[in-house]
Design brief:
- The chain has 153 residues and is an alpha/beta fold.
- It contains five helices and four strands; from the N terminus they run αβαβαβααβ.
- 28% of the residues are buried.
């Protein structure tokens, strides 16, 4: 097993999925050219192209809505909210649309969306860069919350 830190492990996992499945794509603030605020997506745009790993505007609710539509149409989007603190404008789309679609449609429709929302990171960013709001999503039917504690996870 390779010796990796958390950033390297996440980058490797994203790279593997982008290699494995052409319907996987990634977008969010600074994830393309810049490689993400924590450099998790570093090098992925250069390797997989600007149509599969790309930057987006600062509009978290819009990002979740776009990912929802992409998933409905056969893509597997990975949308990154730059810091988990900024996920709240996307809360309605995630909780009331993405999470409930399969149940609401009687299993006829689903949307395979992954929302990455880094929390903490040791940057001492104050009240707008240090929250961990994942508990607000854990009790939502239709959502799976994954919180890695180490690179192996």
């Amino acid at each position: 097993m390779a010796n990796m830190n958390m950033i390297q492990s996440l980058n490797s996992a994203l790279d593997i999925m982008l290699d494995r499945d052409e319907t996987v794509l990634m977008f969010g603030q600074d994830v393309g050219y810049f490689g993400g605020v924590f450099r998790v997506s570093d090098g992925l745009q250069a390797k997989h192209g600007v149509h599969r790993v790309f930057d987006s505007p600062l509009a978290e609710g819009g990002l979740a809505a776009i990912a929802f539509g992409m998933g409905l149409n056969g893509l597997r989007p990975i949308v990154e909210i730059q810091f988990s603190d900024y996920i709240f404008p996307a809360y309605d789309q995630i909780v009331n649309e993405i999470a409930k679609l399969r149940h609401r449609s009687g299993g006829e429709f689903w949307t395979p969306v992954v929302v990455r929302a880094p929390a903490g990171g040791g940057i001492r960013g104050g009240h707008h860069h240090s929250q961990s709001p994942e508990s607000q999503f854990t009790h939502t039917p239709g959502l799976n919350v994954v919180y890695c504690s180490n690179p192996y996870n």
